[in-house]
Amino acid sequence: MRVPVAIFVAVSRNNVIGRDGDMPWRLSTDLKRFKAMTLGKPMVVGRKTLLSFGGKPLPGRPHVVVTRNADFHVDGAEIATSLEAALSRAQAIAAETGAEEIGILGGGEIYAQAIHLADRLYLTHVDTDISDGDTFFPAVDPAVFEKVEEIAVPAGEKDTYPTRFAIYHRRSASN
Fold first, then answer.
1. What whole-number distance in Å separates Cα of residue 146 and Cα of residue 140?
2. Domain spanning 5-170, CATH class
3. Is there a contact between 3 and 95 (Cβ–Cβ < 8 Å)?
């Protein structure tokens, strides 16, 4: 049985997700929710994004790293040379561990490929425009994804901006 694939991303009003290999904001409140939502689930992540985590997998989540570099190695993660291979391995890990969802954590190139394969989107809409961003998230097509939930989240003391956390589900072919 195929486990649903979900994208996790924080995105500005102008679709920026990154700047200079990092996120252009600090969102402690969102990171806490992200951790709670992803613990125990297989994560698919691009090499550059993994390096932005400090070069090691996030604790408590099996990682499959997508890279064209066949010599790339990181302790505690598996390597795949394509998104399709990574998702196949993540499906096997989910079956072995009983995980109910697979997470895709970026970056930009991975998201661009994965949005066509995702069943769910967990988007943190960051209430700002980033003028100097260099990594972007593709536009969410409302004909493909339906917003099923949205919660306004005021900026906490360790958050740069207020956010809106939204969940989107892929529309069925019969809609």
1. 9
2. alpha beta
3. yes
Q: What is the pLDDT of residues 10-63, one digit of tens each?
A: 999 999 999 998 999 999 999 999 999 999 999 999 999 999 989 999 999 999
| pLDDT class of 68 with cuts at 50, 70, 90 | very high
Decide if 108 contacts 18 (C-beta within 8 A).
Answer: yes
What Cα–Cα distance (Å) separates residue 97 from each residue in 76, 84, 92? 16, 20, 9
Q: Is pTM, for the whole model, over 0.70?
A: yes
Structure confidence by residue, pLDDT tens digits, 143-153: 999 999 999 99
Nearest CA to 94 out of 47, 57, 40, 50 is that of 40
Q: Which long-range contacts (CB under 8 A, 24 or more apart) does 170-175 make?
A: 170/118, 170/119, 170/120, 170/144, 170/145, 170/146, 171/143, 171/144, 171/145, 171/146
Tokens of 52: 């932005």
